[in-house]
Specification:
This protein is of the alpha/beta class and 179 residues long. 36% of the residues lie in helices and 13% in strands. The protein is built from six helices and five strands, in the order βαβαβββαααα. The protein has a five-stranded parallel sheet. The N and C termini lie far apart (36 Å).
Length: 179
């Protein structure tokens, strides 16, 4: 079994990357932390039928062979995943844009200083020619805009801007993004 997860107090970038991980890694079970930001909770309550998540309690952690971690590089920021730390056969793939000391010891990583983590995931989706639904593109743009201040934060890169343009090409809905 392979699962994907993100940090506690999940923001839009973390949520977007969690969904993107299920596209990059088919047959991945997305595990949403219990604590999410209020704006993320409101989005999910409106679109609950479009996204399917599992809770940690619903997963047999002893059956997990691969853990895909998005938007964090710290065990302490993961929601109730410490039991996996003791599994010597666990493969960890990391997608992160932070410049912290990583304590996950990943087997594979995509880690670059960039405005939004979803930008890294959008790059992979484009390379694999994976089409997005309008709601996926919209969610991904919410994550990108949240982490880049709608593309005006100093950490915003040219690639973030290109990713935003691509998401608009994929029919992201700016009316939902600005709500």
């Amino acid at each position: 079994m392979q699962i994907a997860t993100t940090h506690r107090s999940t923001d839009f970038d973390g949520l977007a990357c969690l969904i993107a991980a299920t596209l990059v890694y088919p047959d991945t079970v997305p595990v949403l932390p219990e604590a999410v930001h209020p704006n993320v909770r409101a989005f999910l309550s409106l679109h609950k039928d479009l996204f399917e998540f599992r809770r940690v309690e619903d997963i047999d952690l002893s059956a997990v062979k691969r853990l895909i971690v998005v938007d964090t590089d710290q065990w302490d920021r993961l929601d109730r995943m410490k039991a996996l730390k003791k599994n010597p056969d666990l493969r960890i793939d990391l997608w992160d844009h932070h410049n912290n000391h990583c304590d996950l010891n990943p087997d594979w990583r995509c880690r670059e200083p960039i405005g939004a983590n979803i930008t890294l995931m959008v790059r992979a989706l484009k390379e694999k020619a994976i089409s997005l639904t309008p709601i996926q593109a919209t969610l991904f743009l919410c994550g990108l805009y949240e982490n880049t201040g709608s593309l005006i934060f100093p950490s915003t890169t040219v690639e973030d801007v290109y990713a935003a343009a691509y998401l608009l090409e994929q029919n992201a809905d700016l009316n939902i993004v600005r709500a």
